[in-house]
Amino acid sequence: MTTHRIVVVDVDRDGWTDGLQLSISRLDEQGAGDGYRLAGPKYNGSSSNLLRAELTEHDAAQIRSYLDGAFPQAAPDHAEVRAATLREAAAAVESGIPLLLNTAIGAEAKGTMTGTLEGLADRLRAMATEASPAPAVVPCGRSLATGQPCPDHQPTAAQGGAR
């Protein structure tokens, strides 16, 4: 696997159109890599490089702060993270049941412990369902145009509607 350790910003001149091209690229130690054209005509192999700037960690932090200011990332959905964690816990509990059945404990203890683990897995799954955020009601074109709920797309009772 190639590790891209160098990030550069290039300004090139297109040989066909004489237009300027601005790109950012990530390169490996041999100078090979890939990039993203930010502006100018598409690259066609006729470009000549006019300017290359290798970005530093400080440059990356500054650029990131500008981008985060203009395009803030959405905060993680804590309810969905909790639900996913509960689902993973339920799966882990269930995966332990076959291991329990292969142990050298008495049948009565196995039955009690299996029932307890199954009940725990069921409760974890129920908690995950309760923790999951309600699905968003996406308005259709008709309700967006009129500002009124569309009779064909009323939210269900589970989504807070009356159906």
Written description of the protein model:
By secondary structure, this protein is α+β, with helices and mostly antiparallel strands. It folds into two domains: 6-70, no CATH class; 78-131. The protein is 42% helix and 18% strand. The protein has four helices and four strands; from the N terminus they run ββββαααα. Strands 3-2-1-4 form a four-stranded antiparallel β-sheet, with no helix packed on it. Strand 2 and strand 3 (33-39) form a beta hairpin. Helix 2 (78-101) packs antiparallel against helix 3. The chain is elongated, with a radius of gyration of 28 Å. The two termini are 54 Å apart.
Could you give a short description of this structure?
The protein has 163 residues and is an alpha+beta fold.
Topology (elements, then pairings):
Blueprint: E1 6-13, E2 20-27, E3 33-39, E4 48-54, H1 57-70, H2 78-101, H3 107-131, H4 141-146
Antiparallel strand pairs: 1-2, 1-4, 2-3
Beta-strand content bin: 15-25%
Arithmetic mean pLDDT: 80
Total beta strand runs: 4
Uncertain residue segments: none
3D shape: elongated
Structural class: alpha+beta
Rg over C-alpha atoms, rounded to the nearest angstrom: 28 Å
Order of helices and strands: EEEEHHHH
Query: Considering DSSP H and I runs of 4 or more, what fraction of the residues is helical?
Result: 40-55%
Distance between the termini: 54 Å
Instruction: Indicate how many domains the architecture comprises.
Output: 2
Major sheet strand order: 3-2-1-4
Largest sheet: 4 strands, antiparallel
Tally of helical segments: 4
